[in-house]
Request: fold
Amino acid sequence: MALAWIIDDDEDMGEAIRLMLQLMEYQVQIFVDAKSAAKALLAGQRPDVMILDIMMPEVSGMDFLEYLRRRPEFRRLPVVMLSSETTDVRVEQALKLGADGFVFKPVTFEELEEALQKAIAAR
Reply:
């Protein structure tokens, strides 16, 4: 069973996405901030795919994505960005930094499933 990480400070959103991922037969781990996810990565844990919220306190999803793409060991990790902001500028910025997909809150099951499939295929 593939492992998906959700990194989102909104616990309700994290729980909703967790339920969707479980229906897709993913094992799920939730992090409420980028720092805790970074610690897990540096400790050797690795997800098969990551759903990363853009707007988080302390370390934004964009900053964390940039960190991931600068590190050779994390460059091939599929990352789908999640945001309540629906601007094309934000999407373009995320894709330029190396995001493999983008979904908007509130995300539907179908949108999430499609974004994950494309992200995994791209990496």
In short: The longest strand covers residues 3-7. The chain has a mean pLDDT of 95. Residues 103 and 112 are 7 Å apart (CA to CA). The first helix runs from residue 11 to 23.
